[in-house]
Amino acid sequence: MALLEVKNLRVYFHTREGTVKAVDDVSFTLEKNETLCLVGESGCGKSVTALSIIGLISNPGKIESGQILFEGVDLVKLKKSELRKFRGTEISMIFQEPMTSLNPSLKVGFQIVELLLEHFNVSKTEAKNLAVEFLKKVKIPDAVGTYDKYPHQLSGGMRQRVMIAMALISKPSLLIADEPTTALDVTIQLQILELIRDLKNSLGTSVILITHDMGVVANLADKVAVMYAGKIVESGEVFEVFENPLHPYTVGLLGSIPKLDTPKNSRLISIPGNVPRLINPPKGCRFHERCSRKLEICEIAEPPEMTIGNSNHRIACWLYSDEFQGAVDTDERYGS
Amino acid sequence: MIRYIINRLLLTIPVVIAVSVLVFLFIHLIPGDPVEMMLGETATIANVEEIRHMLGLDKPLGIQFLDFMKNLLKGDLGKSIVSRRPVMQIVLERYPATIKLTVASAIVALIISIPLGTLAAVKHYSWIDNLSMIFALLGVSMPNFWLGPLLIILFSLTLGWLPPSGYGGFKYIILPAITLGTAMSASLTRLVRSSMLEVLDQEYIKTARAKGLRERLVIYRHALRNALIPVITVFGMQIGSLLSGALITETIFSWPGVGRLFIESIFRRDFPLVQGCVLIIALTYVFVNFIVDITYGFINPKIRYE
Amino acid sequence: MNESDGGIELQLFFTKKKTNFSDVWYRFRRNKLAVIGLIVITLFILVAIFANYLMPYDPYKIDIRNRLKGPSKEHWLGTDDLGRDVLSRLILGTRVSLRVGLIVVGISATVGTIIGLLSGYAGGWVDNLVMRIVDILLAFPGILLALAIVAILGPGIDHVILALTLTGWVGYARVVRGEVLTIKEEEYITAAKSSGIKKSVILFKYILPNALSPIIVLATFGIAGAIIAESSLSFLGLGVKPPEPSWGSLLNVGRRYIMVAPYLSIFPGIFIMVVVMALNFIGDGLRDALDPRLRNK
Question: CA B104, CA B122: separation in Å to the nearest integer?
């Protein structure tokens, strides 16, 4: 049984201006020990998907339909109090801004211990020891001293390590990391990612990593799912998708990374246009307004999700459906 | 932290001195002869001279000032013209009553505003939220010299539950404390609410929930703790206005405090007493603000650990 | 061509774009509460102006036989301790309150603004001195100082106005000084200075217009404050001289006779509360209209 199965998840926000379809029929699977990266521009629904899994969607947002099966249990159907028992124990989440993700008026050590005291039957001393141990595990130099510090006394990188410690101390089966390195110095970013990878391996945690940085995906992920405007447009094993990107959006994302061997005067390919408003998404494929290869049908109907060959490589694009195979050039399909 | 305290002290002390000087000058700002004004038309020359000598007004200004400051440091504020007793003693007798009233009103304000404001924020847009905003509006617009009598009419005259005046046990302080504390509760409620709304939007609240903490812990330990920081600041700043409001409230309820003493002594033209009251009340205000500043330093971890 | 002439073109070029009046009015109009407040205040102003025509009885006419009678067909709000018609006195009292409010704020806002401008612009020891004086005046809570002044000078509306003005300018001075400190760092001021424009011109034609918004808002709330202060003083018996009626003095009588004539304590307070609320709505509305960025939840 897969660790996590998200099936046809729809999360809508009912605002005064209209209903925002932030997540519109998203499905994916995550096995034990796997790392899945959710990629996409801001506003594509990746954070909302993550928050749905951990159960932090609140007014005006609502999970409209779909299932989130965690070890077989449908989280969507659970009562709030039951769902709370999963948070911090089986499923943990860390956020983007270490500056603001920690309570400024509580000591850092306490914020870790608090979690243990809430969910587990440990004494205060035991909890403190566990916390200090874990602070060492996340490679904080002075673990004992740091325990008694306030967030404003630590650097960004240290704060993120504390967040990681807080998230992993209860050895959750699933860690969700929402752009954990975006707000950090470039030099620290790599360290944090490696830390996540090492800990994940030693603890056997599955990870859902949200990012808009394809470099991070290449570094850490087993699987990748590319999201656009509330839908998954392409997903599969990382190597497969990187070597063989099919969806024009994926191609665009990969093409916009400068590489060391990019000729000096060539321009970075950027995808023209903006993410559509999710209140009234365009009819048909949501990407068609920015797609350089769109067909007529793309403006009319949403493409269904298709599997390529025998692999896990799935794609939602008319270009690859049986009817329109002819429209695809061999060269373009294997574009770089 | 120590540096912060010293800083505050250095700012406060000159103010204390200046206030004393200003109060001293009061008597001399009266147009005409202060003593004649005090005694009114029935005064004889002998009376006037006697009082003038008693107040030391026959000495040159400079000497008067030095005497005043010397006496001030000794705690001697002169003698009341009416009762001939030392001003300091009279004021101190009434001081505890004012303190009790002020403290009780502050407590009333906190008891109402913190729960109400928190509830309004947590249940944003609900009927409680709207009710709290209406309360905030009314509480601030109703002058205490109207609220007091209204409360008396309701609770004393009509319902007979509480006494309309007097000093003694718990039931005597209820109406005065509510009267004095309502304006503050109203403005604090608004502040608690907006502060909580802001805090609840913060990232670390998401983190706290993501850790699976009970919602009540999230609200009290994480949200409220941070939301109250600006509230305490404003609360401190407003305590002073309680002292001002006490003047009226004590008069309404015949509460035997310094405020009522002040008003009475004005009508009796007892200037040394008037002077003493102004000085004590002003200095109390300055002192309270000083304590509030220090407390703020304790609460804000950024100042405490520098 | 003298200095200030040469400055005119530069003046047009460098003056920060002022929010123009019709924009402000438009935004203000959209705020329903603010508009209601404006209507209410206008009504009160009309009452004050036309009091003589509105009063059913002579507010000073004493009629001992009819003293302390409750509301009735003849006297809608009853009679006071000397038999005078409460409604008439209440209407006349409007005049006192509004007069005090407007005069006090008019003078203290002007004086406070000038002091704040000079202090903030001059800086140095002048600024320090002024701020120390402000601190000292602020060391007296609420109406304490005003009360003390009235205690010395004796009761009467003019003394009340004087006392409230002497203590009221402080708030404006502080706010204006703060604005000046911010504004004077901006580029267009430096540009104006370097093109040789006189300091006084800079102060009044460049800095002041941009500091006006907070002054206007503060003044609006200030009127409410002045009305409450005057009412408080009159309530204590240190405001208007009898037999002149003020809302506060009516409540004073009410308090003295609360056991036998509770109705006396109800209506004057309603008037005060309504005026204060109206002014608060207007003040909030102005604040939002003048600078929408200042809007808070």
Answer: 27
